[in-house]
Design a protein that fits this description.
By secondary structure, the protein is an alpha/beta fold. The chain has three domains: 97 residues, Cobalt-precorrin-4 Transmethylase, domain 1 (3-Layer(aba) Sandwich); 82 residues, Rossmann fold (3-Layer(aba) Sandwich); 88 residues, 4-hydroxy-3-methylbut-2-enyl diphosphate reductase, catalytic domain (Cobalt-precorrin-4 Transmethylase, domain 1), CATH 3.40.1010. 40% of the residues lie in helices and 21% in strands. The protein contains nine helices and twelve strands. Strand 8, helix 6 and strand 9 form a beta-alpha-beta unit. The longest helix has 16 residues. The relative contact order is 0.16.
């Protein structure tokens, strides 16, 4: 059985940066160390960090001393203000591309645009982005969420960094009919776009696709959705053991791709497990 692996699978720049900052913090910080929410959306990595001495707190109110590592997805402006007010030491591991999106939302708001964030409203990255806008800022997972939106004079658009370009384009096309003036910042991370395009090409070539990554990872879920549209025999797994539930049914070729928060050691174990199955 032939195994084809996406060239750009695994950790992206923002995730590598966050993990490195966390490891440095363990070496250098005195006292308790916390992440506000999971530092990245991969349960296995979060568990490793907990074993190294980094605890996960779900709310700022749970932390009274020590060091706070701000997750790669960022936090809301209110949460960051509370961290400062409590005089906690801060290690800001927010992905620079997410931070740039915060800046664009603030800019569009100052310039009088009604801002739309193309993304999943309940995702922590999107909650953070929304907090930098005005009260009328909107999160839209798809065009469907905007079908009842009234016409606006000026609309500004940004996107969750892990969105597909097709979804952003669809929202932009819809908003062209809803505004006299439209301003768009394409804030989709290049690493996301590259991974999606590579996975699309891979799915066209193989009899079965394996997408590796946390089930709470937006970019991994997006890869699985995209691949499944092309190759119905697409399976999203977190760990190699889940391959035991998959029947390859005589597939001559298997493609393997992974989300931007999936560590290399898990990807390598998945490749080895598929080789053993072959």
């Amino acid at each position: 059985m032939e195994i084809l692996v996406a060239k750009n699978e695994g950790f992206c720049f923002g995730v590598k940066r966050a993990i490195n900052l966390a490891h440095d913090c363990v070496k250098e910080a005195n006292g308790n160390i916390y992440t506000l929410g999971p530092i990245i959306h991969n349960p296995q990595v979060v568990k490793e960090l907990e074993e190294s001495g980094i605890s996960k707190a779900d709310k700022v109110e749970e932390i009274n001393n020590g060091t706070v590592i701000v997750r790669s997805h960022g936090v809301t402006s209110h949460e960051m203000a509370t961290i400062r007010e409590k005089r906690l030491k801060v290690v800001d591991a927010t992905c620079p591309f997410v931070k740039k999106t915060h800046d664009y939302v603030e800019l569009l708001t100052r310039e009088g645009y009604s801002v739309i964030v193309v993304g999943e409203k309940e995702h922590p990255e999107v909650r953070g982005i929304l907090s930098y806008g005005a009260k009328d800022i909107i999160a839209a997972a798809s065009v469907e969420d905007l079908k009842d939106m009234p016409r606006r004079k000026k609309i500004g658009i940004v996107a969750q960094t892990t969105q597909s370009i097709e979804n952003l384009q669809a929202v932009v096309a819809h908003c062209l009919k809803k505004a006299s003036e439209l301003k768009i910042f394409n804030t989709i991370c290049n690493a996301t776009s590259v991974r999606q395009q590579e996975s699309i090409e891979l799915a066209k070539q193989v009899d079965c696709m394996i997408v590796v990554g946390g089930r709470n990872s937006a970019n991994t879920n997006r890869l699985a959705e995209i691949c499944k549209k092309i190759q119905p025999k697409t399976y999203h797994i977190e760990v190699p053991e889940e391959l035991n539930q998959i029947h390859f049914n005589g597939a001559k070729s298997v493609g393997i791709t992974a989300g931007a928060s999936t560590p290399n050691w898990i990807i390598e174990k998945v490749i080895e497990a598929v080789q053993n199955r072959g």
